[in-house]
Write a structure and sequence with these properties.
Shape: globular
CATH superfamily of the largest domain: FAD/NAD(P)-binding domain
Largest sheet: 8 strands, mixed
Oligomer: single chain
Bound molecules: flavin-adenine dinucleotide
Distance between the termini: 34 Å
Helix content: 25-40%
Structural class: alpha+beta
CATH class of the largest domain: Alpha Beta
Number of strands: 21
Strand content: 25-35%
Low-confidence stretches: none
Number of helices: 7
Length: about 350
């Protein structure tokens, strides 16, 4: 079998790269072994503002615009709804924070996103004495639904194998790369935290940040926005809410823990004051980087091997533009922005 590309991993990164390939009429085969869960459990929030410090996210407008077009196109293609537009309400903890918000909302990079008005009304069930600030152009992608339906599309077209990709079985020559029965021009690794088992790219300083989430049912809570306090609360409908997430930099397992659950329950006391029941708990490892920039580029010795990783806490917004950059490098020889290029680690 001969294809243009092998893509390893079908989370948000792999999916975005495959979309580039389909658009360019390239042939490909995906390998997926269900060893990572980040894209399946993610909150799915897209938000161009750092809500701790009230600063703009790196390349916020550029990435957001591209991402919105990307998900809109996928909704049409798969005939399903993935994107739910929500305002984010940031709970203020003090008068000081209100003042910072007012200043930030006047900043040229943030103006389009931050509503300058401080909302002082109380919201039933929500803890907060200092009001809320509204962030616009935000929402949530149902990443689980998206990845599942995308995988189905690939299954129906014989474009995915549910097998662990065994790196040691790669044969790399100047002309091409072969893997078992397949010959291809390039292999693109989109393995998330699975990169740690990739002998070609495990030198990259990917850091794990395990995150745990709860789904709760809170019949007396009736909010139709994303609530950002010490946690995110994401409405799922029928008074169900996704709540999260924790950050753990030492646990590399995908198992939900009692510790994670207790931490979320404890924090939730300061977020809502209505009864709730826990319906589900999930966990995943965010592929984060210490310079907060993705890992994009090709191996310095084997340029037919490429990587798309390090999407961090904002995979929903970042994946489409990073996939485009990588495709343009591989197919058109366009240079990468030095900030994202893995050459920075050579
Ligand atoms: C709790 C939590 C909450 C989050 N919330 C948000 C949020 O609200 N908004 C947001 O934008 N981001 C969020 N994120 C981050 C987001 O999930 C990630 O940035 C994104 O999912 C990373 O995508 P990825 O494709 O790089 O990695 P992954 O989703 O990990 O995908 C990698 C894929 O590669 C496969 N794989 C790995 N090795 C192999 C191999 N050898 N062979 C075959 N297949 C392999 C894995 O099984 C996996 O499917 C959250 C993450 C977590 C954990």
């Amino acid at each position: 079998m001969k294809v243009d590309y092998i893509v390893v991993g079908l989370g948000l990164a792999g999916l975005a790269f495959v979309e580039e390939l389909i658009q360019a009429n390239k042939t490909f085969l995906v390998f997926e072994d269900d060893s990572q869960t980040s894209s399946l459990v993610a909150g799915g929030v897209y938000n161009p503002v750092v809500l701790k410090k009230f600063t703009a996210v790196w390349k916020a407008s550029e990435q957001l615009n591209l991402a919105m077009l990307f998900y809109e196109k996928l909704e049409k293609k798969l005939n399903q709804k993935f994107d739910e537009k929500f305002v984010i309400k940031r709970v203020f903890k003090s008068v000081e924070e209100q003042k910072k918000w007012s200043i930030a909302s006047d900043n040229s990079l943030l103006k389009q996103f931050l509503n300058p008005n401080i909302e002082i009304n109380k919201i039933t069930g929500v803890v907060g004495n200092f009001g809320f600030g509204n962030v616009n152009q935000t929402g949530r992608i149902d990443t689980l639904k998206l990845v599942k339906s995308y995988r189905k599309l690939l299954i129906d077209n014989n474009l995915i194998r549910f097998d662990k990709f065994e790196h040691q079985k790669l044969n790399i020559s100047l002309e091409n790369v072969t893997y078992k029965d397949i010959a291809c021009n390039n292999v693109v690794f989109c393995e998330g935290f699975g990169i740690k088992e990739n002998p070609f790219f495990n030198y990259l300083p990917l850091e794990e940040a395990k995150g745990e989430l709860l789904i709760i049912h809170a019949p007396k809570l009736n909010i139709n926005f994303l609530l950002k306090s010490s946690l995110f609360l994401i409405p799922l409908g029928d008074n169900n809410y996704k709540v999260g997430a924790t950050f753990n930099h030492s646990d590399k397992t995908l198992t939900p823990t009692e510790k994670g659950k207790s931490e979320l329950i404890e924090k939730l006391k300061n977020v809502i004051n209505v009864p709730y029941e826990i319906i589900e708990q999930s966990a995943g490892i965010r592929p984060t980087t210490n310079d907060r920039r993705p890992f994009v580029g090709v191996h310095n010795q084997y340029p037919r091997l490429a990587v798309l990783n390090g999407l961090g806490t904002r995979g929903v917004m970042v994946a489409p533009s990073m996939a485009k950059n990588l495709y343009n490098l591989l197919d058109k020889g366009e240079n990468l922005d030095v900030e994202i290029d893995i050459k920075r680690f050579n």
